[in-house]
Amino acid sequence: MSPTVIKQISLERMASIVKDFPSDGHIPDNPFIEKEIGDIVHAAGGHPNLVQYNDSFVEEQTLYLVMEYCADGDLYDYLSRRKQRTMSCSIALRVLSQVATGLAFLHDHGIAHRDISLENIMLHRGRCKLGDFGLATRDLRGDGRQVGKKYYMAPEIVAGDTYDPKAADIWSLGIVLFIMLTGSPLVSLASMSVKSFRTLKQAGIKTVLQAWGVAPSMTDSAVNLLSGMLQIDPQKRLTVAQVLEHEALNSSQGECTKTA
């Protein structure tokens, strides 16, 4: 039997969190949603690029989620251990390809993740797995409340607009790629009140990459891919299918490893 890890959630504490919903309207993680999405993925046969949820049960006011153990930790810790806190363009694209493949499985089953980040990409035996479904949704439109981590939050979510959760996922995935390449978030918040975001909107991602000194190490197709993922207008943003079909990933399939 493969090793597993058990996540414990106090139902009493969860009820308190729901009762004291943050005044800023930021949606908290919901373990019942995590269980529901995990069950859907499991029933659909699972996917090698998604963390597998194997079982769940309630005992003494505690919800237990039983999921596969990912021996190599998460992508955030992996990058933190690297001297430059970055990856080469080719390796970053391999990671992106795997995560996007898992995300495509979710999107194909009507699920948006809404919390894609380095911390939620697990590494296990040379494979990347998207996990933590506590903010996922099957709704076609988001209701304007903020959700996810601020560095990864799409502009339309920050603005409080109704939004397409799947398009917002692509923005977050683009931020993951940007961090893998530069070692730093693109913006502190995707808001016009933030200077770096205004620069992005006015100059475009290629100019930003040049300013960071990253552009010379990237192919034109990789820059084009990142630009398509980080379109501020969500209607112009690539879909996950378009990401996977993109020229930049055609010759960059493979596995991400701890020694890469």
TrEMBL record:
GO terms for cellular component: nucleus. Residues 1-249 form the Protein kinase domain. GO terms for molecular function: ATP binding; protein serine/threonine kinase activity. PROSITE patterns: PROTEIN_KINASE_DOM. Keywords: ATP-binding, Kinase, Membrane, Nucleotide-binding, Serine/threonine-protein kinase, Transferase, Transmembrane, Transmembrane helix. The keyword Acyltransferase does not apply. The chain crosses the membrane at residues 170-192. PANTHER family: SERINE/THREONINE-PROTEIN KINASE PLK, SERINE_THREONINE-PROTEIN KINASE PLK4. This is Protein Kinase. The lineage of its organism: Eukaryota, Sar, Stramenopiles, Oomycota, Peronosporomycetes.
